[in-house]
Amino acid sequence: MKFSNSKILVLLVLLTCLSCKTKKTSVATNSKQPNIIVLLCDDLGYGDLSTFGHPIIQTKNLDKLAKTGIKLTNFYSTAPVCSPSRVGLLTGRSPNKAGVYDFIPGYKKSEDLRDLVHMQAHEVTIPSLLKKAGYATCLVGKWHCSSRFNSKAQPQPNDFGFDHWFATHNNAAPSHQNPKNFVRNGNEVGVLEGFSSQIVVEEAMNWLDKKEGNAPFFLEVAFHEPHEPIASPEDLVQKYLPKAKTREEAEYFANVENVDIAVGRLLSYLKEKNLDENTLIVFTSDNGPETLMRYYRAKHSYGSPGELKGMKLWTNEAGFRVPCIVNWLGKETYSGTSDKVISALDLLPTFSELAGVELPERGLDGESISSFLRSGNFERSKPLIWAFYDAINDRRVAMRSGDWKIMGRLVSDENDKELPHIHNLYKGNETFVKNAKLTDFVLFNLKKDLSESEDLSVKEPEVFKNMKIQFEAAYKELLKESHIWNRTK
Length: 489
Hints:
It contains 13 helices and 16 strands. The protein folds into two domains: 35-375, 3-Layer(aba) Sandwich (Alkaline Phosphatase, subunit A), CATH 3.40.720.10; 384-481, Arylsulfatase, C-terminal domain, CATH 3.30.1120.
């Protein structure tokens, strides 16, 4: 059979099209913009989910999300305490650069200027970037990014790109049950019946119901649980009493499961509304678990660090290595358990790439993991560094690079004494902090020594030498870019 030149050309075009259809396409560039949901717990420990090894707490919805998605065992928050962690997540930059060094208390003038601390208006955030790509945006739950909540004196969630916000300054009060301190878009709501985790999910679903048009959405669900003051449904408490040492421990276990139930409700809603065809979900925690009775209200704080060393407020692993589950509903991606080193800093550049929006001009500390979602392969190009000046453990500066982690103490340049605990960097202590020496280093291989039990600084001299050089340079750069507060009037 003979073919004319025109018929041969048509055949070649058809074959080319067929090849294009059968070729695996990039999830980042050839897909419709995904809906994005960040589920952020407060003080959830690395070992608090059953999928991460808890022997008692049942989290069937999160377990399923992990089984059908990606369970990240080397995921890090941006700080070992709430406010800086949240600012780092939203901006993709070390919170030190934003000037948020510790948790932000309620407004009260202080010598160290903590009353000034807030996420400043010039910071570029996930929701503000996604809005440029046509996204509808919503925050429900805990804010904790400013000392003056719901005040014109400082930027509020809507100033950072959230179309709708339903939030508290810090914890749900007086507890998770029947909270009375929520604000919706600037208006105080009053007493609400129920438990916080269920209340915020209900608000999220109501917002989705009322959202106009088919624009993609970004939703941050910032659970208050399992941060104190804890309150849990009595039926769940009774379920755990036989296996708990105390009623308070049973209440903690029930508190975590109540979050899981809330997540299950949201997942069911997404399926019912056909929103499970292209929705990227990230579940994680802002920092590690609180220490039992560290302060008088922490009587329910039975969170588990798993095999990790330390707790919340530590720069050892349990302070900021947290559980993380990623599941792109409706998309074929890599699935399974991954030990790749990934950070909450990476969310902003990843979401921006997937949404097709340009990154801010200022440098980011996070890196896009969109290729990891497709292939499971990812290697960081620069290390992760934390400087938490109010850390409970001695070595307040830490860095992870590959399988290795190095930590160091800060001592005064004048008398070689350890720096006092510092909540904030301001003009009054800037020189003192910047002149402090990084010393007394320890080195761990986290792949072989999860609990940081063996210092290898002597056994691995070459590794230690290179890590120390990299560490000192990274900390110097972080100090250079750290924001210094100053009272101008």
